[in-house]
Amino acid sequence: MINPLILPSPDRDERPFVAYVVLCLVLFVLNGVYDATINTTFESQSDDKNGATTLENMTVSDTSLLVLQNGETDEFEVSLDSNYSADGWVLIRIEALVQYSETTAADTACDTVSVELSLANGGGDAPENSIESGQANDCNDIMLWMDWPSVVDSDTDTVYPTAPLTAALSVELDVQSTIPFNDQDEDVQVEIVLTLSRMVA
Q1: Which terminal residue of the chain, N or C, has fewer Cβ atoms less than 10 Å from its own Cβ?
Q2: Quick check: pTM over 0.90?
């Protein structure tokens, strides 16, 4: 009788090996998709001095509903702490949106809303373009902004504002009513959006 130890071994079950290969291929494909998704959130730029760099943009925003009495002024702020500047972020744009409507029944006159946008701390140069104050008496939206040059311009000598900083919006209400004592307050929706940029090698 032949010793079974020297007989050719039967075919092994290769299913675990095939499953392992398939799993490796799936992980490889998923890794490629993940990297592509991350890269699409950034804009590649060429910097002759430092080689290839990547522009990263980020927005920080907040909203609030201000309830103002006739003749009253209120302020809404969005602040950034020093962690942002420590990570290389600089401020390149501030946007402020003010929205309101006449909420008093039977009143045909819109109230007058006056707004001012300001930047405290942060340092840096004055904005390149800006509209920092506005007024509406027809219930139309009011948009204010401050703009600085793009950080991808390697020839610019712009000094950008950096955190810690505070963007503030001052809102004043002057009631205009066609019915005496019918309208003494107004709801004003405000929003501030800060756009930050940095170049990463």
Answers
A1: N
A2: no
